[in-house]
Amino acid sequence: MKVVTSATDLNAISPARPRVLVPTMGALHDGHLALVKRARELAGTDGEVMLTLFVNPTQFNNPSDLENYPRTMDRDLKLCKEHGVDLVFAPEADSMYQPDHSVNIIESSLSKRLCGATRPGHFEGVCTVVLKLFNLTRSDIAVFGKKDFQQLAIIRRMVRDLNVPITIEGVDTIRESSGLAMSSRNTRLSEKQHADAPRIRRALLAAQDLHAQGEHDPEKLLACAREEIEASTEGAKIDYLELLDAESLQPLEKVTRPAVIATAVFYGEVRLIDNIELG
Ligand code: PAF
């Protein structure tokens, strides 16, 4: 496995095709390893899997979240090696953006709600860094997790609208045995918060069950999910809980089309996200 830290060194390596990219911010967990596994399948024997490790400062709207974001480079590199990654790109923080960097990518529809509404500037940072990574790595395919439902939708839209020559592949969310979605942020939960947090998944499943029983009113479905989260014994605080059209990410009056319930919940300073699809 090769590790490169500069764009110049990266450019000097000719890619094996297809080159399949797994963009990450490090602190790798089983969710990331599922992305690597899918990337390996897509790359086949002739292609290569490339993983990027970069904690992108421009997508953090909260400085303490950026500061506390777990950084576990040595462990990450070991996991990459063990799981068949061929090439790691781990750029230095200040090498990605020029001091007078002034061009950003703005998505103006899908990013209006959910994380886009509660984390101003987040998706501008994500789209900009993801497009930079696509350009720097010259990848054919990129793999993203469905836990970040809105991120995946926005990246697909960016690729479509800007004719970026890359294929986007979504991979199902990997969960702990309790149902809690795997996240690098889970390591920052206290033991009690960690035991309480699977209620996020239970809340979404309860709403999905209610929908399967014939309830199509978004307010009732959301109330059902909200009740479970608000029963938290560890002070879980809902940042958002919304039911939206799964394609346009706009509110629905009635769930008659494929929809998604997406939520972000704070445990103290730790913010966890999850979602479930309906229909
Ligand atoms: O999902 C993430 O980890 C990040 O948003 C990404 C796509 C690596 C961009 O920094």
UniProtKB/TrEMBL annotation:
Principal localisation: cytoplasm
Keywords: ATP-binding, Cytoplasm, Ligase, Nucleotide-binding, Pantothenate biosynthesis
Catalytic residues (UniProt): H32
Catalysed transformations (reactions): (R)-pantoate + beta-alanine + ATP = (R)-pantothenate + AMP + diphosphate + H(+)
Statement: the UniProt record of this protein carries the keyword Cytoplasm: yes
EC number annotated for this UniProt entry: 6.3.2.1
Binding site for (R)-pantoate: Q59, Q151
Subcellular location: Cytoplasm
Binding site for ATP: 25-32, 145-148, 174, 182-185
Chain residues that bind beta-alanine: Q59
Pathway membership, UniProt: Cofactor biosynthesis; (R)-pantothenate biosynthesis; (R)-pantothenate from (R)-pantoate and beta-alanine: step 1/1
GO biological process: pantothenate biosynthetic process
Entry GO terms, CC: cytosol
GO molecular function, one term: pantoate-beta-alanine ligase activity
Pfam families, sorted: Pantoate_ligase (PF02569)
Family that this chain belongs to: Belongs to the pantothenate synthetase family.
Function description: Catalyzes the condensation of pantoate with beta-alanine in an ATP-dependent reaction via a pantoyl-adenylate intermediate.
Quaternary structure and partners: Homodimer.
Other known facts: The reaction proceeds by a bi uni uni bi ping pong mechanism.
Protein's name in the database: Pantothenate synthetase
The organism's taxonomic lineage, starting at the top: Bacteria, Pseudomonadati, Verrucomicrobiota, Verrucomicrobiia, Verrucomicrobiales
Name of the gene: panC
